[in-house]
Amino acid sequence: MVFWVFGYGSLVWNPGFEYDEKIIGFIKDYRRVFDLACIDHRGTPELPARTCTLEEKEGAICWGIAYCVRGGPEKENLAMQYLEKRECEYDQKTLVSLYKEEDSLNPVLTGVIV
């Protein structure tokens, strides 16, 4: 299993897992919003921290980084387990297409996990 995952928040500057390749680009019809109250990684029950999530919005774009993980089942499973634990609050996975600035009509990647 080779997979690509799109980072649009803290994964951009701190992926936290071993990856083989990365591509800067954007996804369409989603926008980054800071409306998720978090007490797991930051914040407290009394003062939850705002963390970002994606919200569907037609015509919007969201810039980020797509990371590729390949190299065999062990490496790929470790990365996916890490991501599932880190992003446990956001258990809905969606597949999107990634575009680059040079060509906003034709995706450079499809089937990217977000």
UniProtKB/TrEMBL annotation:
Gene3D superfamilies: Gamma-glutamyl cyclotransferase-like
Gene Ontology, cellular component aspect: cytoplasm
Recorded GO MF terms: glutathione specific gamma-glutamylcyclotransferase activity; transferase activity
Species the sequence originates in: Lupinus albus (White lupine)
Keywords: Lyase, Transferase
Superkingdom classification of source: Eukaryota
The protein, known as: Putative glutathione-specific gamma-glutamylcyclotransferase, gamma-glutamyl cyclotransferase
GO BP, sorted A to Z: glutathione catabolic process
Keyword Iron-sulfur on entry: no
Keyword Metal-binding: no
